[in-house]
Amino acid sequence: IDDGVMKVRVQDEEVSFNLWETMKHPKDKDVCFKLDATEEAIMVAIKQVHKPSPLEQALVNDLMTLIPMKKTKLVNV
User: Fold this and answer.
1) Which residue among 17, 42, 63, 66 sits deepest, i.e. has the most Cβ atoms within 10 Å of its Cβ?
2) How far apart are alpha carbons 28 and 56 in whole angstroms?
3) Helix locations, the chain, DSSP H
């Protein structure tokens, strides 16, 4: 970091970030960032859409009991 500029170098490429310009905030206090709230709402909607029915849950659970478990050899000690 030199004079508020951070430089990142990878092989032959270099990217400079002016830290003073990136840290500016909007002067309007009513501005809000909606990304987090929108992303959370999308995740809730996806969970509701992909919620398995009771029948599907029962079938999946029964299927898991039908899958043969790995046989283990019992040894008397």
Assistant:
1) 17
2) 50
3) 19-22, 35-49, 54-66
User: What are 16's two structure tokens?
Assistant: 């400079």
pLDDT tens over the chain, length 77 residues: 778 888 888 888 888 888 777 666 667 666 666 666 777 888 888 877 777 788 887 877 776 666 666 666 667 66
Cβ distance 6 to 17 under 8 Å? Answer: yes
d(CA 22, CA 16): 11
Q: Give the C-alpha separation, 7 to 19, whole Å.
A: 10
**pTM (two decimals):** 0.28
